[in-house]
Design goal:
This protein is mainly alpha-helical and 210 residues long. Helix content is 50%, strand content 10%.
Length: 210
Amino acid sequence: MAPPGPSLRRAGREARRRAGREAERRRPAATPAATRSSRRPRPAGRRRDATSSTRRTCGSAPIFRQQRIGQYGRLFTLYKLRSLKPAGDEGDVCWNIDHDSRLGPVGRFIRRTSIDELPQLVNVLKGDMSLVGPRPERPYYVAKFSREVPGYADRHRVPVGLTGLAVVKGLRGDTSIAERARVDNSYADDWSLWLDLVVLVRTAIYLVKH
């Protein structure tokens, strides 16, 4: 038999190339899941470690919701950045957590700088609070102080605030509740836009210093 001519050899090569391309086209592509599974897992970085540490000390949800008493005794939900993960209803009846051993470095920082109060701007926009006014308190303590401290309930005749005259006078944390009620009622009696502006400026100065 005579050997195939050049044209037949070229046709054979072309047929083999077409068959190879067809087989390549029909070969199933690697799925993203298979590609991911073939990769070696990357070690967790410092950012993930910091996030895990924050969740262990402050809880998984960054925003903390708590019931507070507003103007005229109206109940509303207040928003804060979570600084500590409370047990059960502890957050509703525990007075001060500044010295709690469970408070981690992140929680201490946001409480010291009052960053945890920033979500209350949402309450201001919703009309639950004003920028300036007596600080809102939890229902348990409003009932308790209204029974024990003369004039405490009267402070609710004005809108509660993100900051207040009592705050800029240093009456926060473990300070006299009777003195707070006196200053809050003084603010309500002497209210003016100028007084609000003074309180806001003094609040800004306090935040810068701390």
